[in-house]
What we know:
By secondary structure, this protein is α+β, with helices and mostly antiparallel strands. The protein has one domain (3-81): Ribosomal Protein S8, Chain: A, domain 1. It contains three helices and four strands; from the N terminus they run βαβααββ. The chain has a four-stranded mixed sheet, with helices on one face. Strand 1 (3-7), helix 1 (15-32) and strand 2 (36-40) form a beta-alpha-beta unit. The longest helix is centred in the first third of the chain and has 18 residues, at 15-32.
Amino acid sequence: MAKLKLDLHDIYNRGGQIDAELNRIVQEAVDKRIELVEIIPGKGSGALKKKVLRFLNQSHIRQLYHRIEKDDKNFGRIFIHFKH
């Protein structure tokens, strides 16, 4: 199974760039018919993870993927599952 990975550690404090990267990775997954995207917001205070989840919960984004999985073993990881 093909998988994409986006690590947000380097751009954690640049809101516009975070949204652009999230849009890019979701669109790439749709275009290439990738089934799984791993997003790593990191552990930290949880603010970046909440921002990512809010982004993914937008209706125009939510219709692109099947489900979201928060890693129960690693608080700083989110998986997006796609059905194509």
